[in-house]
Amino acid sequence: MLLVKVEAGYRVRVATSTSAPQPQQTPSLTGTPVVPGVGYGPVVVARGEVSSTAVAAFGTGGFADPDAALAAYDDAAAAVAAGYAAKAERATGHVAEVMTASAGLASDRGLRGAVRKNLRDGDDLLASVHGAVEQFVAVFTQLGGLMAERVTDLLDIERRLVARLVGEPEPGLPTLPAPSILVAEDLAPADTAGLDPALVLALVTERGGPTSHTAIIARQLAIPCVVGVEDVLEIAPGTVVLVDGARGSVQVEPDPGWARQQVTAAARDRAAHDAWTGPGRTADGLAVKILANVADAPSAALAAQGPVEGVGLFRTELCFLNQTAEPSVEEQAGIYERVLGAFGAGQHVVVRTLDAGSDKPVAFATLPGEENPALGVRGLRLSFGNPGLMDRQLDAVAMAATATGTETWVMAPMVATVAEAADFGAKVRARGMKAGVMVEVPSAALLAHRMLEEVDFLSIGTNDLTQYTMAADRMASQLAHLTDAWQPAVLQLIAITAEAGRRAGKPVGVCGEAAADPLLACVLVGMGITSLSMAAAAAPPVGARLAAVTSEQCEDAAEAALAATDPASGRAAVLELLG
Ligand SMILES: C=C(OP(=O)(O)O)C(=O)O
Ligand SMILES: [Mg+2]
Predict the structure, then answer these.
(1) ipTM above 0.95, yes or no
(2) 357-372 per-position pLDDT tens digit
């Protein structure tokens, strides 16, 4: 039986720590390491909400008269508008448009007039601002359509105005005055879209695990990142810290000489990895495709410049996070064309159909108010009640594939049954493209051999496969020890899936975050995984690591990781084997 075959030859290994000793430094916080690399600089905090303590302390503001209060409002509104304008300058496309419109709205004369009237009627400043915004919200809602969509922007403006007035940093992603360490409770997907790697030296969050979206975006942008760091929000803004994304540590006010040494050493490591140019293969020549995960045309263009052989995961839903209405087939085809067009001969692109729902809110697709959205109507399941949504997207992908001539494979997320795979496979093949399904639910891994009778390839989404195997929310930082793809149970399901692919002679890739971990990548290859897809920035370290080991070493590593009792001992055993 397959399970027994995979488990045969267990060897128990003693966990040993191989990390270099950390010099004694003043307070250090630790979390889950996500993106290796070192960042050293002052902390800037991105807050979700204005603190109620600051609002209470501000009270009525103690202004001498309404004109003095209005002058304070003018200052705050100008600062908020300038913040939006600066963001608009750095952004592109839809985000830039929204930021520019918000800058205009924050300094709108009508809004100012409503605040002035409320002040003259005797309201205090915060109540006047709130009343004026409410008045605008009512008008915009009544107007409907595009104006109604601006209500969220108005509420964001109010939060920022209040923050400015009570003397707090604006909530959400702040405008970084200089290269800084960004600290947050967590970042919303829309916030992460505005991260500038030139200004964010490292990213540290209090919440979230290694597969949270903050982690995924940080990897995509190659920003050193540590998540799940308890108490990190206690660090005062401006404090200088050193973040080590490989160790998962945040050193507060370290010795500057020592910190600079760490930065130099990290830069040296990075230069060594960057020398790897592909294609992916082990030292003894076993070919393993190294592919990129992309989110839109700019990330595809960036990935295409690197040493990857195509795209293993195009997360289409990320193109639509800010969109309230479903784009037409032609509009979608245009978006997909820009991604597919970045890749040419000898490369292929795997497009994933909309994975809306749960942690990826897409306004025109996600079902509102689900009790347990991670186990609800998400991914492929959205097409059960709305088959047109899937059909229109597949039509658009097929149009883009024809227009670009790029070899296009299409896969569905959250497939749980063989019937779903058969239905999806037929739809994709009818449009002349290769069909696949993601293995994200344990049922799909257990029946991988039957899924492969219906489709051309499988792609393992280790982020969700880990979440559903371990029954642990991928966003829950207190469960980060469970939401770890090194968990032997998760590895067992991957091994079963890879073995099914080997027997069927069909490709089985990994496109979850596990593929971006150089050590785990060797384990996956040892199990028979044929491609690894990851944030483009992670490709060189993974490719360089694979090039340094033989396929036999990878098989030994797989055996050791499967035999381990927990992720830590698995990592240690594999490190011991591979060096
Ligand atoms: C690649 C995956 O999909 P996402 O992270 O977008 O849910 C996964 O679940 O591993
Ligand atoms: Mg997933």
Answers:
(1) yes
(2) 877 778 888 887 788 8
